[in-house]
Specification:
The chain is mainly β and about 120 residues long. Helices cover about 5% and strands about 45% of the residues.
Length: about 120
Amino acid sequence: AFREANNDVSGGSDRRQLVAVGSTLGADAERIVVKRIVLTGYPVRVHKRHATVKYMFYNPEDVKWFKPAGLVTKHGLQGNIIESVGEHGTMKCLFNAPIKQHDTVCLPLYKRVYPKYA
């Protein structure tokens, strides 16, 4: 991509200046475009591999919906949701190794995005 660059203030010669370089992908109908979001929560109570996680969901129905999904932490642990606790979206989780109190629990989600044909 180019833009017109004016080098001389007194109205001298105009020339093009390179602004960006890149490549484009072909228009393939088999290609899928996805958007990624990450829900995060924080462990409030930790006992070895078990943790009670808050601030990821707001109600027990959401916890039940995402129960089959896998959890990961910032320190690389893998985990699963065991059950919902209370009425505010708190949940019990089980991880593959002892989790620390200062760790962050993440739930990566992917959604298919359809291109806009305007």
